[in-house]
Write a structure and sequence with these properties.
mainly alpha; single chain; Transcription Termination Factor Rho, Rna-binding Domain, Chain A, Domain 1
């Protein structure tokens, strides 16, 4: 007797999440290319955008600071429309 398992989509796909599958590094690269560091600092008041900004240092900060990551993700979604 062969047992077939149905695929459970809970957790494997996120149809209502527009950021599903998008890496934070890709989000940052897009925003830096589109706005530049000075414009990003004006749009989102985060020190890592103001003083000696690098994508690497911003990623480290954003991965540890949820409120800042939320703002960056919201700007990304608004910018992609």
């Amino acid at each position: 007797m062969e047992i077939k398992y149905s695929q459970d989509d809970s957790g494997s796909t996120q149809p209502n999440n527009p950021l599903h599958g998008v890496k934070l590094a890709d989000v940052m690269e897009f925003l830096v290319d589109k706005y530049g560091w000075k414009e990003l600092a004006l749009k989102i008041n985060i020190n890592c955008f103001k003083s000696n900004p690098t994508i690497k240092s911003c990623l480290k900060f954003l991965r540890r600071t949820q409120w800042a990551r939320d703002k960056v993700e919201q700007l990304y979604l608004r910018s992609k429309k």
